[in-house]
Amino acid sequence: MHQLTLAEIARGLADKKFSSEELTKVLLARITQLDPQLNSFISLTEELALEQAKAADVRRANGESGALLGAPIAHKDLFCTQGIRTSCGSKMLDNFKAPYDATVVSKLAAAGTVILGKTNMDEFAMGSANESSWYGAVKNPWNLEHVPGGSSGGSAAAVAARLLPAATATDTGGSIRQPAAFTNLTGLKPTYGRVSRWGMIAYASSLDQGGPLARTAEDCAILLQGMAGFDPNDSTSIDEPVPDYAAGLNGSLQGLRIGVPKEYFGAGLDPRIAELIQNSIKELQKLGAVIKEISLPNMQHAIPAYYVIAPAEASSNLSRFDGVRFGHRCADPKNLEDLYKRSRGEGFGPEVQRRIMVGAYALSAGYYDAYYLKAQKIRRLVKNDFMTAFNEVDIILGPTTPNPAWKLGAKNSDPVAAYLEDVYTITANLAGLPGLSMPAGFVDGLPVGVQLLAPYFQEGRLLNVAHQYQLNTDWHTRTPTGF
Ligand code: GLN
C-alpha cells in the first residue's frame, strides 16, 4: 500500500479497496520502522492522524468525495500547526506550539488530508543539504551517506522512501526543486503569491513560496490544488482564479516552444548531468516540442544578489526571536542585553547566525546602497531576462542542479561552495516565477532532476509538460533499494 501515489490512493478510497484509517496505520508503522535511518521527521502526530483518517472515512461514507479526502501527508516544520510543535528545525523554536494553523495547513485539512507529522528541514530553511537542522541531518534514501538536499530535505526523503505519498515544502532559492532532484521526486515552486504564506514562518519574505513535493506531476497537481488560492491574511497573496490542475494534464506538447539557455551548460555543470538533460530534451522533442536556444545574460549575477537579499530579509524577519516575544530564553539572564545575546546565541545555529550577520551588515546605513540596493537592481535585470525569453518560448528547460547529491559533511566547512549549487534554482525566486523539477535519470546511482520554468501563473503548463514526459519515461517510478 505504501507504493501508492496520491492519485491511486484517491481511486482506492473511492472504490472502497481500503480505508484511510487502514492506509494511515500502514504508513505510521512504516515510518516507525524505517525513519530512524533517515531522520526525516521532527514530530510524528499518530493520534491526530488516526483521528483525521477516521473523520475522512466518515465523510466518504456520507457521500463526500475529493482527491485529498483521506490522503496521508506531512508538513514541512515551518508551517504553523495549532497545538503541534512548529520548530523550523531550530532550537530557538523547539518548544513552540503555534496558536493557529497556517492557511496551507487549514486548507489541506478542510480538503480532508491526514497529517502524519512534521518533517525535518534546514534551520529556518537556510541550506541546500538539510544538515543545518538542530534535530540532526537527514539522509538520502538513495544513498544514506549522501544529503537529500535542502531545505525541504525531510519532506523529500520521506516521500522518496515511500513513507508517505506527498508532503508540503517551501522554496526560497530552490528548497523544493533541489531536494526533488536529489531524491528522484517531482516538486513545484509556484508563482510568488499563488500559495498563501500566512502561518509559514518567514525566511526571506519576498522569495518564500510553499508548494508540493510528490513522486509524480499528477500528484503535485492534486496537492497544489489543495494549497493554492487567494488569502486575505497574506498581503502578497494574489487574487487570481485557481485552474483545475488535474483536468489540465492532457494537453498535447505539439508545437510547445522550449527555450534552453546557453548559460546553463557552462563550466561547473557535471557533464553526465548535461547528457541526461539532453536526453530529456530529445524525449520532449519526440512528443512534438520545438527547441530554441535562448540567453539569460544576467544569470551570473543571481547568486551574489540572492545571498544579499535573502540574508537581509532574514536578519529582519528573525529579529522577533529574542527570548521575549518568541523563542528560546537563556537561563538566569543578568540584564536585558545579556538575555538577548545569550538567548539568540544559544537558540540559533551557525548558519543562521552567519546569515543574520551578513544581512544586518548589508542593510546597515553606510552599506545599504552598495549591497541591498544593488542586489535589488540585479533582481530586476534577472526578471527582465526572463520576460524577454518568454516572448519567444513557452517554457525554459535546464538542469535543476549542477551536481548530484553530495556526501554528508562534504560542504560543511565551505558555505560558499554550497551557495554555488543553487545557481539554476534561485533565478526563479528572484523573478517570482513558477518552476518544477522532475526526475531525468541517474549518475552513480544518485537521481538527477530536470527543471522547467514558465511565465507567471503557468503552473498548469509545467504540470502538463511534466505529466506528458512521465507518461513516456519511467525515471520517476524508480524506488530506492531498501525502501
Ligand atoms: N539554498 C538556499 C539558501 O540556503 C535556498 C534555501 C531555500 O530555498 N529555503 O538560502
TrEMBL record:
<dbReference type="InterPro" id="IPR000120">
    <property type="entry name" value="Amidase"/>
</dbReference>
<dbReference type="InterPro" id="IPR023631">
    <property type="entry name" value="Amidase_dom"/>
</dbReference>
<dbReference type="InterPro" id="IPR036928">
    <property type="entry name" value="AS_sf"/>
</dbReference>
<feature type="domain" description="Amidase">
    <location>
        <begin position="22"/>
        <end position="463"/>
    </location>
</feature>
<keyword id="KW-0648">Protein biosynthesis</keyword>
<feature type="active site" description="Acyl-ester intermediate">
    <location>
        <position position="175"/>
    </location>
</feature>
<comment type="function">
    <text>Allows the formation of correctly charged Gln-tRNA(Gln) through the transamidation of misacylated Glu-tRNA(Gln) in organisms which lack glutaminyl-tRNA synthetase. The reaction takes place in the presence of glutamine and ATP through an activated gamma-phospho-Glu-tRNA(Gln).</text>
</comment>
<protein>
    <recommendedName>
        <fullName>Glutamyl-tRNA(Gln) amidotransferase subunit A</fullName>
        <ecNumber>6.3.5.7</ecNumber>
    </recommendedName>
</protein>
<keyword id="KW-0436">Ligase</keyword>
<keyword id="KW-0547">Nucleotide-binding</keyword>
<dbReference type="Pfam" id="PF01425">
    <property type="entry name" value="Amidase"/>
</dbReference>
<dbReference type="InterPro" id="IPR004412">
    <property type="entry name" value="GatA"/>
</dbReference>
<keyword id="KW-0067">ATP-binding</keyword>
<comment type="subunit">
    <text>Heterotrimer of A, B and C subunits.</text>
</comment>
<comment type="similarity">
    <text>Belongs to the amidase family. GatA subfamily.</text>
</comment>
<feature type="active site" description="Charge relay system">
    <location>
        <position position="76"/>
    </location>
</feature>
<feature type="active site" description="Charge relay system">
    <location>
        <position position="151"/>
    </location>
</feature>
<dbReference type="InterPro" id="IPR020556">
    <property type="entry name" value="Amidase_CS"/>
</dbReference>
